[in-house]
């Protein structure tokens, strides 16, 4: 009998194939984890912006009409104009405070979210077909809603879009305690 002194070419190729499949699987898992982390960070930033704005509206309820004018798209207005008063060196009235609050929301959306958007409106029907929507019904007495979103992507890399071809909000926060 002859002693076997090494590996055959087929054994080496099978081992390389198993190694390659393992590396591809590990790389795919890493990419998925990175995408999930990015989406989580964007969702967290959007929630913080929406909650902050909701609290500001709740603290300044008399200016609800000013807040309801917010419909900011960072792609259309890349650098939001600063309000006339920043309320730093002198006192400011409630309308100036509302303008400062709106500017701060726009600044956060512009810096934290890729091509972000924010909208404050009255909306009794935030959801359509299981998804948040940007449009508002403006029903008198409907809750004030802060909607914040960004242009996200599906797991396959295609842009997320709604039925009209636009992107969907990531977060909608109802503002409680503000009367019409």
TrEMBL record:
Key words, A-Z: Membrane, Transmembrane, Transmembrane helix
Highest taxon of the lineage: Bacteria
Sequence intervals crossing the membrane: 6-28
Keyword Phosphoprotein: no
Domain spans labelled Type IV pilin Tt1218-like: 28-102
NCBIfam families listed in its UniProt record: IV_pilin_GFxxxE, type_IV_pilV
Name of the protein in question: Type IV pilus modification protein PilV
Lineage: Bacteria, Pseudomonadati, Pseudomonadota, Betaproteobacteria, Burkholderiales
């Amino acid at each position: 009998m002859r002693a076997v002194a090494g590996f055959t070419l087929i054994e080496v190729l099978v081992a390389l194939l198993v190694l390659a499949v393992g590396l591809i699987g590990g790389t795919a898992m890493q990419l998925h984890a990175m995408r999930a982390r990015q989406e989580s960070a964007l969702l967290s930033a959007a929630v913080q912006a929406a909650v902050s704005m909701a609290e500001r509206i709740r603290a300044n309820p008399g200016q609800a009409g000013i807040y309801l004018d917010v419909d900011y798209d960072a792609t259309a207005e890349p650098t939001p104009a600063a309000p006339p008063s920043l309320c730093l060196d002198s006192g400011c009235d409630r309308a100036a405070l509302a303008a400062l609050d709106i500017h701060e929301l726009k600044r956060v959306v512009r810096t934290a979210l890729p091509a972000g958007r924010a909208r404050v409106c009255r909306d009794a029907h935030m959801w359509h077909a299981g998804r948040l929507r940007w449009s508002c019904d403006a029903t008198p007495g409907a809750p004030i809603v802060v909607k914040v979103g960004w242009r996200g992507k599906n797991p396959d890399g295609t842009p997320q879009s709604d039925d009209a071809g636009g992107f969907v909000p990531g977060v909608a926060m109802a503002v409680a305690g503000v009367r019409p």
